[in-house]
C-alpha cells in the first residue's frame, strides 16, 4: 500500500496541533485568572479567593502538563515532517520560536514549580509573584508563537536569496501585517475559553448547592468577563476579517464561499448556508442575504471583493472547511455574547443563582471556547493553503524526504497515545472538580500533626515540612 | 559589511558552543529526573516512590525545557542541519517524544489518581526509560553519520538502527539511572537514600564499561574519529579526558563509600561532562557528520546575531531564576511529605 507522505504529514500536524492548542488556550486564560485571584486574595484578605486559586491550580497543573508534552512534539515536527520548511524559512521563523523558548518557556516552567509546590514553603508575596510570572510567561509564549504563525500567513521583513528567506527587518517580521489582529483575537479567545470553564464549574456547584460562596464568586467573575469580552471579541474578529481581506483575499473568498461577482451586480451577498461544490465552482443549496457580505467585509453596501474564480485553481484554498468552520466559530461567538448578556442582566437583577433554566444548562458550556478556537484555527490554517508561508513556500514543497509509512506509523501512535492521554486528562480534571475547592478531608501522614490551613501562610521551616493539602 | 567575513566564521562557532551548553544542561538536568523514572520500578514501597517523585516534581518541567532549547537552537542557528538530522532520525525522535508525553503527564495524573495509580507508575517508569533509550539511539545515530546528498537527507528510514546506536541507547539508560541515583542520595533520606546509594554503586561500574566501549568502538569503526584522537599532537592534548574520567570515577566511588551526600552528584555531573566533551572532540566541526560542518549549515548571519543578542541577555536571567528555584526547594524531601 502506498502512503502519501505529504497528506499524512498534514493530517499528523493537524491532529497534533489541534490537540495541543486546547491546552495553552485554556492555561493562558487560567494562569491570568489564578494570578488575578491571588492578587485579590492578598489585597482583600478574602479566603475564598485563596480557595478558588488553589483549586484551579490543581486543574492548571494537569492541563499544563498536557500542553507542555504536546507542545514539545510540535516543535520537533517542524524538523521531522517539514524539514524543507525549516530550511527555507528557518532564518525568519526560527528566531521567533527561539525567543519564545528564551523569554516564555523557561519563565513559566521554572516558576510553575513555585506555583504548584510553594504554597507551604514561600511567603505569600513570592507565591503571588510566581503566579504572575507564569501568567506573563504563557502570554509571552502566545506573543511569539502568533508572531511566527502570522508571519507564515502574511510574511514581511524578508528577502529571498537562492530560494531561502533571509531577514531584512526584524520589527517588520515580528509585527507583520496580520500579527496584531491575530494576537488580540487569540488572547481574548483564551480568556473567554477559560471563563466558560470557570462558569460551567461554578454553575455545577451552584446547581448542586455545593460551596455556595466560592461557586458564586466563580460565576460572577466569569459572567462579568464574558459580558464585556465577548462583544469586544466580535469587534476584534471583524477587524481581523478586514485585514485578511487585504492580505489574504483568497482565504476570505473561501470563507464566504464567494465564487464570482456577477457582472453588473453590486455588493456581495452573505451566504448563510450552502454546500460548496468545488468541482463545479459553485454553491449548492445556497441560502444568502444580498449585500450583507459586502457590508461585513468592506463595511459598504456596494463594494465587492474578489471571488474564488479570480484566483488560479492552484492558488485557491479548499472551500468547505473554512466555510463551515467559520460559521461554527461565529455562531458560537454570538452564543457567548448572549450568555454573557443574559447572565449580566440576571446578575444585575440579583436573580442569577436562583434562575434554574439558565444555571442548569450552564454546567455544560465548558467546551464552547475550545470548539470555537478549534474552528477559528481551521479557518485560518486551512484558509492559508496551498501555501505554508504565503507566497514563499507551498505546503507541497515543504515536506521532509521521508517515506509515507514512517508518517503513517507515527500518526497511528499519536492517535493512540493522545487518545489515552486526553481521556485520562478529562477524567482526572473531572475528578478534581468533583472533589471541589475544599477538597476531601486529608488524613495526616503518620507522625505529623494535621496543621490548620493558617499555617500554610507561614514561611517557616516548620511549615516547609508540613504536609501539603 | 566590513566584518562579514569574520562574523561568518565566528558566529557559527559561538552558536555551536551555546548549543552544546544547552544540550549539556539538558542531559544533566533532565538526566537525573529521567533517571528517577528508570529507577522507579526498583523502589520497594509506594512511600519510597512518592519520595522519589517529590524530589523532582518542582523541577522536571524546567529541566525538560532545555530539550526545547536544544532542538530550537539547532533550528534557529543551523536550520540546514536541523532539516537534515530530523528526517534522518525521524522514528527515534518521535518515539522519544511520545515516551516523554507519557512520562510528563504521569507526574500530574499519578497524583490525582487512586485506583489507577499503578498505570501511571508504569507510564512514568516506561516513558522515562524509553525516552532515555531513544536519546541514546539518537546520539548513536548522529555520531555514526548521516547520508547527505544535495543538502538533504538521502539515506533510508532505518539507517539509525545499528548495533552501535543500540549500545549507545543502553549506555544512556545506565547513565541517567546513575545520575538519578546520586540525585536521590542527595535529596532523600532513610530507606530511599540507602537504596539509592546501593544503586549508584552498582551503576557506576556499568556506566564506566559503556563509556569504555564507546571510546573503543568509535575510533575502530569510524576512521575520521580515530584520526582525531590518535595522531600527534592531538593525542597529548586529548589524553587528559580519559585520564580525568578514571580519576573522577574513582573519587565518586570513594565518596559513595564514605557516605558523602552531595559530592557523588557533582562528581557524576563531571563524568557526564567529560564524556560529552569526548563526543564533541570526536565530532567537531561537523553538525551532520561526516559531511556538513557548522559553517555550511549556519543560519543567515542576521538571524544568528538577532538570536544571539536575546540569548546573551536572557541566559543569565534564566540561569538566575532556575538557581533560585533549586535553592528554594533545597534540602531533603521528607518521607510522607505531600506532593502538591
Automatic annotation (TrEMBL), chain A:
<feature type="transmembrane region" description="Helical">
    <location>
        <begin position="96"/>
        <end position="119"/>
    </location>
</feature>
<dbReference type="GO" id="GO:0005886">
    <property type="term" value="C:plasma membrane"/>
</dbReference>
<dbReference type="GO" id="GO:0019646">
    <property type="term" value="P:aerobic electron transport chain"/>
</dbReference>
<keyword id="KW-0249">Electron transport</keyword>
<feature type="transmembrane region" description="Helical">
    <location>
        <begin position="55"/>
        <end position="76"/>
    </location>
</feature>
<feature type="transmembrane region" description="Helical">
    <location>
        <begin position="218"/>
        <end position="236"/>
    </location>
</feature>
<dbReference type="InterPro" id="IPR002585">
    <property type="entry name" value="Cyt-d_ubiquinol_oxidase_su_1"/>
</dbReference>
<dbReference type="Pfam" id="PF01654">
    <property type="entry name" value="Cyt_bd_oxida_I"/>
</dbReference>
<feature type="transmembrane region" description="Helical">
    <location>
        <begin position="405"/>
        <end position="429"/>
    </location>
</feature>
<keyword id="KW-1003">Cell membrane</keyword>
<dbReference type="GO" id="GO:0046872">
    <property type="term" value="F:metal ion binding"/>
</dbReference>
<dbReference type="GO" id="GO:0016682">
    <property type="term" value="F:oxidoreductase activity, acting on diphenols and related substances as donors, oxygen as acceptor"/>
</dbReference>
<dbReference type="GO" id="GO:0070069">
    <property type="term" value="C:cytochrome complex"/>
</dbReference>
<keyword id="KW-0349">Heme</keyword>
<feature type="transmembrane region" description="Helical">
    <location>
        <begin position="183"/>
        <end position="206"/>
    </location>
</feature>
<feature type="transmembrane region" description="Helical">
    <location>
        <begin position="324"/>
        <end position="348"/>
    </location>
</feature>
<feature type="transmembrane region" description="Helical">
    <location>
        <begin position="357"/>
        <end position="379"/>
    </location>
</feature>
<keyword id="KW-0812">Transmembrane</keyword>
<comment type="similarity">
    <text>Belongs to the cytochrome ubiquinol oxidase subunit 1 family.</text>
</comment>
<protein>
    <submittedName>
        <fullName>Cytochrome bd ubiquinol oxidase subunit I</fullName>
    </submittedName>
</protein>
<dbReference type="GO" id="GO:0020037">
    <property type="term" value="F:heme binding"/>
</dbReference>
<keyword id="KW-0472">Membrane</keyword>
UniProtKB/TrEMBL annotation, chain B:
<dbReference type="GO" id="GO:0019646">
    <property type="term" value="P:aerobic electron transport chain"/>
</dbReference>
<dbReference type="GO" id="GO:0070069">
    <property type="term" value="C:cytochrome complex"/>
</dbReference>
<dbReference type="GO" id="GO:0016682">
    <property type="term" value="F:oxidoreductase activity, acting on diphenols and related substances as donors, oxygen as acceptor"/>
</dbReference>
<comment type="similarity">
    <text>Belongs to the cytochrome ubiquinol oxidase subunit 2 family.</text>
</comment>
<dbReference type="InterPro" id="IPR003317">
    <property type="entry name" value="Cyt-d_oxidase_su2"/>
</dbReference>
<feature type="transmembrane region" description="Helical">
    <location>
        <begin position="88"/>
        <end position="106"/>
    </location>
</feature>
<feature type="transmembrane region" description="Helical">
    <location>
        <begin position="118"/>
        <end position="143"/>
    </location>
</feature>
<protein>
    <submittedName>
        <fullName>Cytochrome d ubiquinol oxidase, subunit II</fullName>
    </submittedName>
</protein>
<dbReference type="Pfam" id="PF02322">
    <property type="entry name" value="Cyt_bd_oxida_II"/>
</dbReference>
<feature type="transmembrane region" description="Helical">
    <location>
        <begin position="12"/>
        <end position="43"/>
    </location>
</feature>
<dbReference type="GO" id="GO:0009055">
    <property type="term" value="F:electron transfer activity"/>
</dbReference>
<dbReference type="GO" id="GO:0005886">
    <property type="term" value="C:plasma membrane"/>
</dbReference>
<feature type="transmembrane region" description="Helical">
    <location>
        <begin position="163"/>
        <end position="186"/>
    </location>
</feature>
<keyword id="KW-0472">Membrane</keyword>
<feature type="transmembrane region" description="Helical">
    <location>
        <begin position="265"/>
        <end position="287"/>
    </location>
</feature>
<feature type="transmembrane region" description="Helical">
    <location>
        <begin position="198"/>
        <end position="222"/>
    </location>
</feature>
<keyword id="KW-0812">Transmembrane</keyword>
<feature type="transmembrane region" description="Helical">
    <location>
        <begin position="234"/>
        <end position="253"/>
    </location>
</feature>
<feature type="transmembrane region" description="Helical">
    <location>
        <begin position="307"/>
        <end position="329"/>
    </location>
</feature>
<keyword id="KW-1003">Cell membrane</keyword>
<keyword id="KW-1133">Transmembrane helix</keyword>
Amino acid at each position: 500500500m502506498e502512503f502519501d507522505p505529504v497528506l499524512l504529514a498534514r493530517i499528523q500536524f493537524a491532529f497534533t496541533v489541534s490537540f495541543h492548542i486546547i491546552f495553552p488556550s485554556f492555561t493562558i486564560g487560567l494562569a491570568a485568572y489564578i494570578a488575578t485571584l491571588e492578587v485579590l486574595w492578598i489585597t482583600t484578605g478574602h479566603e475564598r479567593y485563596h480557595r478558588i486559586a488553589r483549586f484551579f491550580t490543581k486543574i492548571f497543573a494537569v492541563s499544563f502538563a498536557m500542553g507542555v508534552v504536546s507542545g514539545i512534539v510540535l516543535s520537533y515536527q517542524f524538523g521531522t515532517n517539514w524539514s524543507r520548511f525549516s530550511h527555507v524559512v528557518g532564518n525568519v521563523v526560527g528566531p521567533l520560536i527561539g525567543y519564545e523558548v528564551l523569554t516564555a518557556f523557561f519563565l513559566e516552567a521554572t516558576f510553575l514549580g513555585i506555583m504548584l509546590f510553594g504554597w507551604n514553603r514561600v511567603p505569600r508575596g513570592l507565591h503571588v509573584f510566581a503566579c504572575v510570572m507564569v501568567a506573563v510567561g504563557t502570554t509571552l509564549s502566545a506573543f511569539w508563537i502568533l508572531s511566527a504563525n502570522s508571519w507564515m500567513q502574511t510574511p514581511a521583513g524578508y528577502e529571498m536569496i537562492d530560494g531561502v528567506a533571509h531577514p531584512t527587518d526584524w520589527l517588520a517580521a515580528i509585527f507583520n501585517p496580520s500579527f496584531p489582529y491575530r494576537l488580540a483575537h487569540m488572547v481574548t479567545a483564551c480568556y473567554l475559553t477559560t471563563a466558560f470553564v470557570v462558569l460551567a464549574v461554578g454553575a455545577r456547584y451552584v446547581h448542586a448547592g455545593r460551596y455556595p460562596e466560592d461557586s458564586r464568586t466563580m460565576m460572577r467573575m466569569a459572567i462579568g468577563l464574558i459580558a464585556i469580552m465577548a462583544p469586544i471579541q466580535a469587534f476584534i474578529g471583524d477587524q481581523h476579517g478586514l485585514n485578511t481581506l487585504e492580505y489574504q483575499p483568497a482565504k476570505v473568498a473561501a470563507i464566504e464561499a464567494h465564487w464570482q461577482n456577477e457582472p453588473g451586480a453590486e455588493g456581495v451577498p452573505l451566504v448563510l448556508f450552502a454546500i460548496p461544490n468545488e468541482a463545479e465552482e459553485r454553491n449548492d443549496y445556497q441560502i444568502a442575504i444580498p449585500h450583507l457580505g459586502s457590508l461585513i467585509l468592506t463595511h459598504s453596501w456596494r463594494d465587492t471583493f474578489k471571488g474564488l474564480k479570480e484566483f488560479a485553481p492552484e492558488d485557491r484554498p479548499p472551500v468547505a472547511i473554512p466555510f463551515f468552520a467559520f460559521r461554527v466559530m461565529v455562531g458560537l461567538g454570538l452564543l457567548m455574547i448572549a450568555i454573557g448578556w443574559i447572565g449580566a442582566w440576571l446578575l444585575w437583577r440579583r436573580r442569577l443563582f436562583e434562575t434554574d433554566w439558565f444555571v442548569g444548562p450552564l454546567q455544560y458550556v465548558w467546551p464552547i471556547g475550545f470548539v470555537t478556537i478549534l474552528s477559528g484555527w481551521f479557518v485560518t490554517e486551512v484558509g492559508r493553503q496551498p501555501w505554508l508561508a504565503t507566497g514563499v513556500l507551498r505546503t507541497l514543497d515543504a515536506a521532509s524526504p521521508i517515506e509515507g509509512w514512517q508518517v503513517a506509523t507515527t500518526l497511528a501512535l499519536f492517535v493512540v497515545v493522545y487518545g489515552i492521554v486526553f481521556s485520562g486528562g478529562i477524567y482526572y480534571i473531572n475528578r478534581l472538580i468533583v472533589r471541589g475547592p475544599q477538597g476531601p478531608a486529608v488524613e495526616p501522614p503518620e507522625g505529623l500533626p494535621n496543621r490548620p490551613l493558617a499555617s500554610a501562610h507561614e514561611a517557616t521551616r516548620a511549615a516547609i515540612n508540613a504536609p501539603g493539602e | 559589511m566590513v566584518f562579514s567575513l569574520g562574523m561568518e566564521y565566528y558566529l557559527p562557532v559561538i552558536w555551536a558552543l551555546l548549543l552544546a551548553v544547552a544540550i549539556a544542561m539538558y542531559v544533566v538536568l533532565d538526566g537525573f529526573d529521567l533517571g528517577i523514572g528508570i529507577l522507579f520500578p526498583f523502589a520497594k514501597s509506594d512511600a519510597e516512590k512518592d519520595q522519589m517523585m517529590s524530589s523532582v516534581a518542582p523541577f522536571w518541567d524546567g529541566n525538560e525545557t532545555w530539550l526545547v532549547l536544544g532542538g530550537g537552537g539547532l533550528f534557529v542557528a543551523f536550520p540546514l542541519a536541523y532539516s537534515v538530522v530530523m528526517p534522518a532520525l525521524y522514528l527515534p525522535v518521535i518515539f522519544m517524544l511520545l515516551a516523554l508525553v507519557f512520562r510528563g503527564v504521569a507526574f500530574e495524573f499519578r497524583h490525582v489518581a487512586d485506583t489507577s495509580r499503578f498505570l501511571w507508575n508504569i507510564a512514568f517508569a516506561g516513558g522515562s526509560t524509553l525516552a532515555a533509550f531513544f536519546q541514546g539511539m539518537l546520539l548513536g545515530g548522529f555520531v555514526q553519520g548521516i547520508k547527505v546528498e544535495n543538502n538533504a537527507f538521502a539515506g533510508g528510514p532505518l539507517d539509525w538502527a545499528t548495533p552501535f546506536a543500540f549500545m549507545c541507547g543502553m549506555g544512556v539508560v545506565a547513565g541517567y539511572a546513575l545520575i538519578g541515583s546520586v540525585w536521590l542520595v542527595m535529596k532523600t533520606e532513610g530507606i530511599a537514600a540507602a537504596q539509592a546509594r546501593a544503586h549508584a554503586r552498582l551503576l557506576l561500574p556499568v556506566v564506566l564499561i559503556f563509556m569504555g566501549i564507546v571510546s573503543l568502538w568509535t575510533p575502530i569503526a569510524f576512521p575520521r574519529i580515530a584520526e582525531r584522537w590518535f595522531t600527534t599532537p592531538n593525542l597529548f592534548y586529548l589524553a587528559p579526558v580519559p585520564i580525568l574520567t578514571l580519576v573522577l570515577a574513582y573519587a565518586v566511588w570513594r565518596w559513595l563509600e564514605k557516605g558523602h551526600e552531595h559530592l557523588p552528584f557533582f562528581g557524576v555531573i563531571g563524568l557526564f561532562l567529560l564524556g560529552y566533551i569526548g563526543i564533541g572532540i570526536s565530532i567537531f566541526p561537523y553538525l551532520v557528520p561526516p559531511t556538513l560542518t557548522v559553517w555550511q549549515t549556519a543560519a543567515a548571519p542576521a538571524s544568528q546575531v538577532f538570536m544571539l543578542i536575546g540569548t546573551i541577555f536572557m541566559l543569565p536571567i534564566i540561569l538566575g531564576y532556575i538557581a533560585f528555584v533549586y535553592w528554594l526547594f533545597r534540602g531533603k524531601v521528607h518521607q510522607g511529605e505531600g506532593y502538591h
